[in-house]
Specification:
By secondary structure, this protein is α+β, with helices and mostly antiparallel strands. The protein is built from 16 helices and 36 strands. The strands form ten sheets. The chain has a six-stranded mixed beta sheet, with no helix packed on it. Strands 16-13-17-21-20-18 form a six-stranded mixed beta sheet, with helices on both faces. Strands 19, 22, 24, 25, 26 and 28 form a six-stranded mixed beta sheet that branches. Bound molecules: adenosine monophosphate (AMP) and magnesium ion (MG). The site of magnesium ion (MG) has 6 residues, from loops. One of its GO terms (molecular function) is metal ion binding.
Length: 660
């Protein structure tokens, strides 16, 4: 047998290893994974430290705090007025004022009183002053009249007061010996205020668990550095480090390491020696770069407890304990990584940080669309919440677990049982909220996305309205508007019969508001001799005549695709099956020479430095749900469309606002 050349040998070896790995991956349920991990974990905090109250914000109390004194420490006046005996005021009114002799003392804050209030006398007292011996009430100055004309100064009382009036008794705010704050309390400004009121200057808090965060992958570049070809930015490192902080830990960000066993192994060992916990991301799925778990298995006892969990997103999760320290390898896919972080890792960090478990908040929602699911894996679908006419509606995110934004923009997730192959449309189910409790946006915009739409949404934000935009395509937006699941649906669909834009989508209860025109056209790399100097139709003819010329198409149902098919008149040039879902993807493919031509809108062509041959102006308009027209945010949206500054910004993007 001849020897394979080196690189191919390595490649084939990697593929074999990947195939073998499928077998040793013992996939367990999410509950079983948590049990196994929990059995080997010591979840108690890793010590306490004493810190100054001024540094205590965001820290966790290590022990209960008992109030060392009463607050207020003495009986205190709550108003400016006169301390007196309530029984001396019986019957007093504006018509029948009573006169009390004034003691020769004014009780200011911070000065102990010297004179006892004896019957039929009163002492002037300031808010916060110590109530003197003998007095049992304070009358407000507004209900008195000072009489200092006579030889013995006196005060006229115009109200009768009850005993105890306007006195804050010692310990009425905080009583000495009471449990002021409990262990595990996260210290915010209010708690710090209470501690200060008790005179506490230093406080025992839980030492934050130190969590080392490493990313793995040859493709990773740190934010701020230049992105070379075939590279992506290391987003997991940043989001996980921040999420560690949110969970009460102290992240130690190590950056990204290439898929190199020696380099990565050294980095992991060093990081773990210095930390209470180690979190990696990437290198867990079956692939050539799958090293992390091999290294983890050498870090300490008992080693890997779980490698493979029957859940989606997140199957390739790896959980281990190395000589008492948790070690976790999160999947590389960003949404999988942060989802499994919150499910399996954040609770551990919270416990080590001394924080109580977080009780997830849930909400009953309706899911309007069918959500397909893989049999045998418990599946979590991240959703955006929208207020419908009959309660909350949850829209599953259309982007997959490779997306960075799916998790970041979701309000929560729904669960699909491992034994179900789908969640039927219109199922009522529970959504578990993530992040801050969901606040319904002021306006929901569902339909086709456009760069200039961001300008209008930006104008709304400047006016204090929050908008949620969900990109579901023109047709999806029209359907959502009919069902009343959104307020506004941006659409750009040509009626194949009449050639008119969007008017055929208007139904009872909807009206059409004109947006702007955008120019659709033929995109190619500047200087391509096949297309230079030609019209769009000539360029298409040239493309069709050249067998090596590769196109990039668009997805069925998009307005652009309708235009492409019209122009191709049944031709199927090479690349036709490549059907990405956005203008940007088309432009990126051409700019990176993965394709030679395609159709997109002019501003996107410009953004990617591509040449553009106009084909047709396209009308991008808004379907407005009539019953929601009077909502302030919808009105603000319509006003923004007419706003001169907004229209100027839309023009600057290469669009033509309606009625220009
Ligand atoms: P892996 O688990 O290494 O096979 O990675 C799965 C996918 O996640 C690949 O597309 C990686 O490029 C991507 N990925 C891995 N690590 C990161 C990271 N730190 N930030 C963003 N994407 C990542
Ligand atoms: Mg990788």
């Amino acid at each position: 047998m001849t020897q394979l050349p080196k690189p191919e040998e390595a490649l084939i070896d990697a593929v074999r290893r990947a195939a073998r790995q499928e077998q040793f991956l013992e996939v367990v349920s999410a509950d079983e994974a948590k049990r196994r991990f929990g059995r080997h974990l010591d979840l108690s905090p890793r010590g306490t430290q004493s810190i100054a109250l001024s540094n205590a914000l965001g820290r966790v109390l290590a022990a209960d705090v008992l109030a060392p004194l009463d607050v207020p420490p003495f009986d205190r006046s709550g108003v400016d007025g006169f301390a007196l005996r309530a029984s001396d005021t019986t019957g007093a009114s504006d018509a029948t004022p009573l006169r009390l002799r004034l003691n020769r003392e004014v009780i200011a804050c911070g000065h102990a009183p010297l004179i006892e209030v004896s019957p039929v006398t009163a002492t002037a007292i300031a808010t916060g002053g110590v109530v003197p011996r003998g007095a049992d009430a304070v009358i407000m100055i507004e209900h008195t009249e000072l009489l200092d004309d006579s030889e013995t100064p006196s005060v006229e009382i115009r109200r009768s007061v009850a005993p105890g009036q306007f006195i804050a008794y010692a310990g009425s705010d905080i009583a000495r010996g009471e449990t002021l704050l409990r262990k595990g309390t996260l210290l915010g400004s209010r708690e710090i205020g209470m501690l200060a009121a008790c005179g506490i200057a230093t406080i025992d808090v839980v030492r934050k668990p130190k969590v080392a965060v490493l990313s793995t992958g040859d493709e990773l570049v740190q934010p701020g550095e230049d992105l070379g070809p075939a590279r992506i930015y290391d987003s997991n490192g940043a989001i996980i480090a921040a999420a560690v902080t949110e969970a009460g830990g102290e992240p130690e960000a190590y950056g990204a390491f290439p898929d190199d066993e020696t380099l990565l192994g050294d980095a992991m060992r060093k990081a773990l020696a210095d930390a209470d916990m180690l979190i990696l991301s990437g290198g867990t799925s079956k692939g050539a770069g799958d090293l992390s778990h091999r290294i983890v298995s050498t870090l300490g006892q008992p080693g890997i407890l779980v490698h493979g969990v029957a859940l989606k997103p997140g199957k390739p999760l790896c959980l281990a304990v190395a000589d008492g320290k948790p070690v976790v390898v999160l999947p590389g896919f960003p949404t999988s990584a942060i989802f499994t972080f919150h499910a399996f890792v954040a609770p551990v960090i919270r416990a080590l940080a001394g924080l109580p478990p977080e009780n997830p908040k849930t909400l009953t929602v309706r899911v309007p669309t069918r959500v397909p699911s893989e049999l045998g894996r418990k599946e979590f679908a991240l959703v955006a919440l929208v207020e419908g006419s009959d309660g909350m509606i949850a829209f599953p995110s259309p982007k997959g677990s490779g997306s960075v934004t799916t998790f970041s923009q979701a309000d929560g997730f729904i669960e699909i049982d491992a034994l179900a192959s789908a969640l039927d449309a219109n199922t009522t189910t529970e959504v578990t909220l993530i992040g801050a409790a969901a606040r319904a946006p002021d306006v929901v915009i569902m339909g086709s996305h456009d760069v200039a739409l961001d300008v209008v949404v930006g104008a709304l934000a400047e006016r204090g309205f929050t908008a949620r935009t969900i990109a579901v395509g023109s047709l999806g937006g029209a359907v959502a508007a009919q069902r009343g699941e959104c307020d506004i649906a941006p659409v750009h669909l040509v009626d194949p019969q009449s050639g008119a834009y969007n008017t055929h989508l208007v139904q009872d209860g909807l009206s059409l508001v004109k947006g702007w025109q955008r120019s659709q056209g033929f995109l190619y790399r500047a200087g391509d001799p096949r297309f230079e100097g030609k019209s769009a139709d000539q360029a298409i003819a040239a493309a069709l005549a050249d067998h090596y010329c590769l196109m990039v198409n668009r997805n069925a149902g998009s307005g652009t695709r309708i235009l492409i098919d019209q122009k191709l008149k049944g031709a199927r040039p090479p690349g036709y099956a490549n059907q990405p879902k956005s203008h940007n993807a088309v432009a990126a493919a051409i700019a990176q020479a993965r394709a030679d031509w395609g159709f997109a809108i002019e501003p996107v062509a410009r953004m990617y430095g591509l040449s553009f041959l106009p084909v047709a102006p396209e009308e991008y308009d808004f379907l407005i749900v009539d019953s929601r027209k009077d909502r302030p945010a919808v009105r603000a949206f319509l006003q923004a469309l007419q706003d001169d500054k907004v229209r100027q910004r839309i023009r600057a993007l290469g669009m033509r606002p309606a009625n220009d």
